[in-house]
């Protein structure tokens, strides 16, 4: 498996490896995000013990970790006569630490904690015994995000109170992906991110020497593709998922544009209050999120969105066509007749918006958050007053929640024209009335794959507050095109 990026996380691990005290680090993140691979990469050339727990019994855990202790210590007795308690395991850890600097990592820790209520106290006691010993770097990691945030990292996690730091490992952004696909054009890199997202496990299925369509066919659509049934496997591995079919129905509904609670509940054949509990589980797993207008964090205008681009793609182009995708020839036909002709329309949705929002977050000075905005305004029509919805794809706000920039995204064959500026200026007027602008004016950003009309180019040349950004410019190093 290729290893790319993660320089900040490697630096954090290196700092703790070089510490003058014992270090206890928590590392967590959703499945497939690369925690185990990060630890294995960091462990190279260092004395280490890496143990990955399974969903098996405590006897299985003790047998497996005894084998790892035997390897790390060179004492085969641990393998021949496995330890029978976790208290004995930590006593063996004491011996390993006395033998020199060592990384001890317990991966998928949630499986251990569910089998042994005393494990937190044993960890605390171990760290207390070794607290002045710079030989120890203990890492506890896992993929049950809600468990780690509530019981290990959260304020109530007193049983793991000796930790000296924590890292929540996030998926890669689009800009992190360049080493995975150096030979693709900028536009195809954006398309690739819309399909595979930022999960390293998925990205490693990309053959950089092959076109995007061939990678998509081989890894996702073919009956033997590694990622063909990935979402079903992902849910099957979660102990909190007891009705996989209902959760799959919720994700499929969101992927097909049913983003309100009532709409999702209808597709799940559940009452809204029942559906809300299923959606809460998917939120805890970081598979979906609630989306509100970015200026109203606590507002009631709630829409649900799938966070992972690959899941969005799979539920749009694979799940509804399972009966069709039974042979390699059928998979090729599906790619040619359904996927590729509509892929750009798919990219034009959340994927290109999210990339544009990330660009704004890194390039708009003082921006601390970027999201979408939508709201209603009464307008006069021939039939009388009507509510008309206005929206902005990209809205950057400062630390006080004031709007710094408004943006529009287009991933299509049509150019941006001056009418889009009129729409954003209408949104700015609505926000000004609510006293939500950071100053007298905001920046207007236009993100486009195809280009911009002559009139909009003329306006941008005359106005410093109008900025036109092509996909090629979006790929430039950050800071080279910052808004001033």
Question: What keywords describe this structure?
Answer:
disordered C terminus, 484 residues, Rossmann fold, alpha/beta, Trna Endonuclease, Chain: A, domain 1, five-stranded parallel sheet
3D structure, described in words:
The chain is of the alpha/beta class and 484 residues long. The chain folds into three domains: 7-168, P-loop containing nucleotide triphosphate hydrolases (Rossmann fold, 3-Layer(aba) Sandwich), CATH 3.40.50; 175-348, Orthogonal Bundle (Arc Repressor Mutant, subunit A); 351-474, Trna Endonuclease, Chain: A, domain 1. It is 45% helix and 17% strand. It has helices at residues 7-17, 35-43, 58-73, 77-80, 86-98, 109-115, 119-130, 145-153, 186-196, 200-203, 212-221, 230-236, 244-255, 261-268, 272-284, 309-317, 328-347, 350-363, 418-433, 454-462, 471-474; strands spanning 23-28, 48-52, 102-107, 136-142, 165-168, 288-291, 303-306, 369-381, 384-397, 403-410, 443-448, 466-470. It has a five-stranded parallel beta sheet with strand order 2-3-4-1-5, sandwiched between helices. The protein starts with 6 loop residues before the first helix and ends in a 10-residue tail after the last helix. Mean pLDDT is 90; it is low at 478-484.
In short:
The protein is α/β, with parallel strands linked by helices and 484 residues long.
The fraction of residues assigned to DSSP E strands is 15-25%
Counting DSSP E segments of at least 2 residues, the number of strands comes to: 12
Radius of gyration, in angstroms, nearest whole number: 25 Å
Number of structural domains: 3
| Major sheet description | 5 strands, parallel
The N- and C-terminal alpha carbons lie at a distance of: 41 Å
Number of helices: 21
CATH class term of the largest domain: Mainly Alpha
Shape: globular
Low-confidence stretches: 478-484
Structural class: alpha/beta
Helix content: 40-55%
- Major β-sheet strand ordering: 2-3-4-1-5
Task: Indicate the CATH topology of the largest domain.
Answer: Arc Repressor Mutant, subunit A
Mean pLDDT reading: 90
